[in-house]
Specification:
The structure holds 2 protein chains of 2 kinds. Chain A is an alpha+beta fold. Helix content of chain A is 58%, strand content 19%. The chains are: A alpha+beta, B alpha/beta. At the A-B interface, helix 1, helix 9 and helix 12 of A face helix 2 and helix 3 of B. The complex binds adenosine-5'-diphosphate and magnesium ion. Magnesium ion binds next to helix 1 of chain B.
């Protein structure tokens, strides 16, 4: 049999067959690793989580026309420069003056699906318009025109180049929803892009686009620069207030998590060191015996180091798994969203546990080599 | 040249002379018993011969080398290569099987050899207990594992400090029989014992009292061969 095989066998036997003793040490390592892995996951996930929280307050980038207006194709070209993983939503708006029941007002055409993403704070009574000839009206308009959900209405539009003779364009729409925002959004009628094109006879025009991107403020600024440089018809701007505060709150939160992580690591080290010291003390007789039958200090050191490395690895693996679950629970309960497993974090957790266990075991193991076999084996 | 020679060996703890001017020669292949009342210095002497302790004064020549002058690192090497130890408390590593305990001595000596370790267990009649943990073995069986471990590396001397002190008569007999076999094969044996019956099967009995070598008895009825 190879020497290495025997070594491996001794080390595993010590952990497996002395289960109850090693369990305490293992628990210390595993709890430390759990908290480490959990906090690291949260640390790296906080930006994403907090970003999502802040995005609830609206888009953080807008496109306005460089001249009069821009086209759907320009919007698409612009957002194609943003990493699709970071792009939360892009919502076009087209504003036209219309009349309903002879009252002049503003109609906004938009993409009903993505507007929910860029303006998540919109509170809607009824059903979002989903097919053509369905419309949503702002609360103010609904009150002024006495419109309620399920009502039919006729929307009139006078083309810009029309003279006295030309009849108005018109479409009939059903009100399916009433919008409450507490802001100026309540003063619009919302149509789908297609209905607006039917009404005006002019396709593909956009006056404004709201874009929500999940990225740091530096990244956002660089996106703005790139888009402005490469899409002539569009002027991209940041909605600065939200992104700036997002970043500063984030860094404070991360600093806090980092601090807690360091404290937890220190506590883990103390705990593992104490446990290992107890383990070594308890095994003085065995160490004496090993020395009596010919073990050198170096081989005693190697064996105990092997045990502690294995302990660190098992504890680290347990911690990485439990820590992920812990982070997941925190994330779901605090931020209301789930996180994805990061293999790199798991590997880091395991490596750190192994290193910390090894480091904290050095002193107890050194004292193990000083055991005098003649003293511990004496026993009348 | 004797295999082992103690010349004016002292071991002094404060005022206490645990060993007081001890002189002793042991030839290769000899079987020596050491007797004496409790506290007379038997274990102290065995520890010094076994390279686990150093005398306060005097020379201890093992194969012509004065082990009193060696560093503790060298003592470990000498102990590993030349000495097989058997203790009263049958010290075994409690989480290793009988076989693994025997292989442990091979591991520190050179390389573990499962077949050879198995043969050693066969010699002490424990082939069928090879996979048992010490806690699953009786006292006598544990001590036999210790004997197997002590002989596995073909040491020049086997030192046994009250090997039968904790054994019943039947196991005592088995262990003494093993000593007979080892002696017949040429192994040098030094056995500390309280039991005159165990002592008198050796060629020579050395009696210690208050750290001094009181007397030596040549056992008349020693035959030199194993008979049962
Ligand atoms: N490490 C020590 N420190 C002090 N006194 C010791 C030590 N080891 C042994 N002694 C003393 O030396 C004497 C001989 O002990 P020992 O050799 O163990 O006797 P025994 O013949 O019973 O084996 C005893 O009085 C014992 O108390
Ligand atoms: Mg003794």
């Amino acid at each position: 049999m190879k020497k290495r095989k025997m070594f491996y066998r001794m080390v595993t036997a010590s952990l497996m067959r002395r289960r109850s003793r090693m369990l305490i040490a293992l628990l210390a390592v595993a709890i430390g690793a759990t908290i480490l892995s959990g906090l690291m996951t949260i640390y790296f996930d906080v930006p994403r989580q907090m970003g999502a929280q802040f995005r609830n307050y609206g888009a953080n980038m807008i496109f306005t026309p460089a001249q009069e207006e821009f086209q759907q194709a320009d919007l698409e070209q612009g957002i194609s420069l943003i990493d699709p993983k970071e792009l939360v939503g892009a919502t076009p708006f087209r504003y036209e003056s219309v009349r309903i029941h002879e009252q002049p007002l503003m109609a906004a055409a938009t993409d009903m699906e993505s507007v929910g993403k860029t303006s998540p704070y919109w509170s809607v009574d009824g059903e979002w318009p989903s097919v053509s000839r369905q419309a949503m009206v702002g609360k103010t308009i609904a009150e002024n025109l006495n419109l309620s959900i399920g009502d039919q209405m006729t929307i009139n539009y006078t083309p810009e180049d029309a003279d006295e003779e030309t009849p108005d364009n018109w479409i009939d729409c059903k009100v399916t929803a009433i919008l409450n925002t507490g802001g100026s959004e309540e003063e619009y009628v919302y149509l789908s892009m297609e209905d607006m094109e039917d009404l005006t006879g002019v396709p593909g025009v956009i006056d404004l686009a709201e874009i929500s991107v999940s990225a740091t403020s530096e990244k956002l600024s660089s996106y703005v620069e790139t888009i402005n440089a490469s899409v002539d018809s569009v002027r991209a701007e940041l909605v600065k207030r939200v992104t700036a505060s997002e970043t500063s709150v984030l860094s404070k939160l991360q600093a806090l998590v980092l601090l807690v992580t360091i404290i937890v690591l220190a506590l883990t080290m103390i705990c593992v060191a104490t446990t290992m010291t107890a383990v070594v003390t308890e095994r003085r007789q065995e160490i004496g015996l090993r020395k009596a039958i010919g073990a050198s200090d170096a081989s005693i050191m190697k064996e105990f180091m092997g045990e502690s490395l294995l302990l660190g690895a098992i504890g680290g693996i347990l911690g990485a798994i439990v820590g992920f679950v812990f982070a997941q629970v925190v994330s779901v309960n605090v931020f209301g969203s789930s996180i994805s497993f990061r293999p790199l974090l798991a590997i880091i957790t395991i490596i750190v546990s192994v290193l910390i266990t090894a480091l904290t075991c050095v002193l107890p193991i050194r004292s193990a080599t000083r055991v005098d076999p003649a003293l511990v084996l004496k026993g009348e | 040249m004797s295999l082992l020679e103690l010349k004016h060996v002292y071991k002094i703890y404060g005022d206490l002379h645990a060993l007081d001017d001890v002189n002793l020669k042991v030839e290769k292949g000899e079987w020596v018993s050491i007797m004496g009342p409790s506290g007379s210095g038997k274990s102290t002497m065995m520890n010094i011969i076994g390279c686990m302790d150093k005398p306060s004064k005097g020379e201890v020549l093992l194969d012509g080398v004065d082990i009193a002058k060696e560093s503790s690192k060298n003592l470990t090497l000498i102990r590993r290569d030349k000495i097989g130890l058997i203790f009263q408390q049958f010290h075994l590593v409690n989480y290793l099987s009988a076989l693994e305990n025997v292989m442990l001595a091979q591991y520190y000596h050179s390389v573990p050899d499962k077949e050879e370790a198995m043969q050693a267990l066969e010699r002490v009649g424990l082939a069928d207990r090879a996979r048992h943990l010490p806690s699953q073995l009786s006292g006598g069986e544990q001590q036999r594992v210790c004997v197997a471990r002590a002989l596995i590396n073909y040491p020049e001397i086997i030192l046994a400090d009250e090997p039968t002190g904790n054994l019943d008569d039947k196991n005592e007999e088995i262990v003494v029989d093993l000593f007979h076999k080892l002696h017949a094969e040429g192994t040098t044996l030094i056995v500390v014992t309280h039991d005159p019956e165990v002592a008198e099967v050796a060629q020579r009995t050395v009696v210690l009292r208050h750290g001094k070598l009181e007397r030596e008895v040549i056992n008349e009825n020693f035959t030199g061969t194993f008979q049962h």
